[in-house]
Amino acid sequence: MSGNRTSTVLGRKLGGELLRLRTAAGKTQQQAAEELSATATKVVKMERGWVPMRDPDIKALCHFYGVVDVHAVDQLVRLAKQDRDRRKVKGWWNDTPTLETQVEYIAMEDAALKVRQWQMALIPGLFQTPEYTRAMGMGDISSDDIDRIEDVVAGRAKRQARLYGDQPLRIHAVIWEAALRQLMGGSKVMGRQLAHLCELTDLPNVHIQVLPFRLGMHPCVGGPFNILSFGEEEAVDVVHMDSVGSTIWIEDVEESSAFAMIFDRVSRASLSPYDSVQFIDSVGKELSE
């Protein structure tokens, strides 16, 4: 998909509202297309948030659907402008070919105000040291692509810049003990990584908790996920999940709320931030013995 995927946070919200209005009015996509002197394909793309929308098209469709509330129409027009402005943003990630599979997520993360992350086997990318990232990359690419690892390391560093500055990204990460004990790159690399985790907790916008093995069964056995929250009132939380064969995006209010509830449950089951730092430090000391 071309363009900045970030804008779908707003574009899909707008498209979904137009779909709701069309359905309530009993109109078909073909009828809507004829009203715009366009193709049905254009209406499909609009309702799915795939394309930026023109104000005249939105007003014409609202009139066709019988929407008489001027405030409601103005709200949709304002939402469309926000979406168009967002699509114009071209981030550094677009010029890094080796990050192609991550472009959609990085664009979302760059626009987010807050990220809640549950991680089972790896240290979250925003917290990784360069050595940890290199070690992780060595197991994920062929020997012919080793040079690409440095691009990934550089990309991580640029993402991590969002943890600092005047308006830093707020991140609440809950990490399973397995991620702390997996010797990515060996004991020295892992020891430095754990020390870095402890240092990051000094940042007021970074909230880290650990879910230790001893607590047994937990509510997040289904796999890791991220919940991204945005500043616009119209933008719902977006849930991102990666698996071996696919990437899943959830941009539905009810489903994202369900994930938020699951995250809250695993957070409550985990160690407190203070005890988590002590736990991470103890695991690090074990590596140095």
Short description:
This protein has 289 residues and is an alpha/beta fold.
Secondary-structure element pattern, one letter each? HHHHHHEHHEHHEEEEHH
Which architecture of the largest domain per CATH? 2-Layer Sandwich
The helix-and-strand class reads alpha/beta
> Ends: how far apart?
50 Å
> Uncertain regions: pLDDT < 50 for 5+ in a row?
1-6
* Overall pLDDT confidence: 86
Q: What fraction of residues sit in β-strands? A: 5-15%
CATH topology of the largest domain: Endonuclease, Chain A
- Overall geometry comes to elongated
Radius of gyration: 22 Å
Q: Helicity, in percent? A: 40-55%
Commentary on this structure:
The protein has 289 residues and is of the alpha/beta class. It has two domains: 83 residues, 434 Repressor (Amino-terminal Domain); 195 residues, Endonuclease, Chain A, CATH 3.30.870. The protein has twelve helices and six strands. The chain has a six-stranded mixed sheet, with helices on both faces. A hairpin with a 4-residue loop joins strand 5 and strand 6. The longest helix has 18 residues. The N terminus is likely disordered.
